[in-house]
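Q: Sequence in, structure out?
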Amino acid sequence: MSKKLSTTVYAILRPSRRYGPVNEAGIRPVQEFAVDRITKKRPVTKVSEMAVRLNLTIDASLFDKISPVIDIELEEGDLFVNVDAQVSAEAVPVE
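A: Exactly. Output:
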């Protein structure tokens, strides 16, 4: 049986490109964002930043293989509730 490893980190996201007409709040919509930094401690964010907490649990055997790719998509309503997702991946042999 494989051992599960867990950690929690915060990814601090910041807008990297704004474009389009100004909205009712006087802000141009974000078109692109970047991960500014990642921290283990609860972050302090600047005005335009937001933090996303990532709870990661990984099978220890994954460290013996090629790094897995995990896609995460958040929608507007997800920001105000706890989003719980489980991602399963199987190794695909390269031909």
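The CA atoms of residues 75 and 81 lie 11 Å apart.
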